[in-house]
Write the structure tokens for this entry.
Amino acid sequence: MVLLLFIYPGVYSIVQPSGGGGTVGVLRLLLPQESLMFEVLILALFAVSFDFISGYTGYLSFGHSLFFGTGVMMVLGARADAFAGAGIPVLSAFGPQTPLLQVMLGAMVLAMLLAVLIGGVSFRLTGVYFAMITLGVAELARFIVVGYIGETGLQVTGSDLDWVIGLPGIGGVNLIPFRGSQVVLTDVPILGSLIGLISSLPVVGPYVPAEIQLIPLTSSYLVVGLVVVLSYFVMQRILNSPFGRVMLAIRENEERASAIGINTYYYKNAAFAISAAFGALAGALQAAWAHQANAAGAFGVLERAGPALIATIIGGIGTLAGPFYGTLFDENLVEVFDRDIKPFLGDLLGAETLQSTAVLGTNLNGVIDIWLTGQAQMYTGTVFIVFILFVPGGLLGTLRLYAGGKLSHRFGDFLAGLVGRGRGVLGR
């Protein structure tokens, strides 16, 4: 899946110029645009951070939007033109020239501190009371931020490369150097050496370009994808540690965990802080890519925590990777109904057929406008209800159930079986 993620720009470029029906047209309909994949990756990271605390401890954090908004405000607030000299104390340490990487780390630390403060109060309660406390705190933060900076959106200048790629590295060395408007992969210190090694091989070497250049959009997509994948693996490693086992014990039976001597209050607070850090990282990436944000939208529970919950349920709560698939499904469904479905049907059936075929007192074109175009939320809600009633494990959870375990484990067993059979054939 990681490999597919990183080769996606090349795959989409193959089908993007083509339209009409047939296999290519269907692929173009189903595959999200590269720019939408930014949203998918960032919102998926936020949904995964939500699943980290909610799916593995059983405590639903309806106020998780607070941490997403923290990341957004830290990045935009660090730039001089974002708050127009509002002078928020916590942002005074980050000037306009502060490397984005440092601002993101600062956002993660601030989110962890907020989570510890909120958890210190809210984890005295359980069940719906915890969810309501976190929701109330997030709404309070939204009112404070909107009241302080107003309803207008915050905006800064810059390009994708300036914000996402042009990160000054450690010791003054650029992590990813770029020339003009393009990144040249052969200039990257480690990657450039690896490309040079491959180019020296006798078979594949002649086919390796002397310079591998990427357009800004693709370069930014790859860097954001790398950050999201690394964040996922960090959270997965934590869950596979003794700390993660305690989280599962709390989810299954907190009273029994306390009875055997586990300080559940400490572990819940620590898990909440970790999830908050990655939630803030998602908000920081969003602000760095979009260069603007609306304060109410960044902190809004319905705008952020709601979609995260939907993505987690559809993908599979308590699976960590499931929210990736849930977010991809949700975001792509919106794009298909808002942008792609009508042109696709027009190419497939013909514009004349859409206009001339009578259906329900109108034509096919009118039916498409009423029931399909812009109606993604209706179908997402229907799918959400169906999953709650009939597929409680979500997409990934159900696949794991039928596969008898994690798909990576089953795939590893499958490869081991193939290798074993191959050795047996060679032995004979």
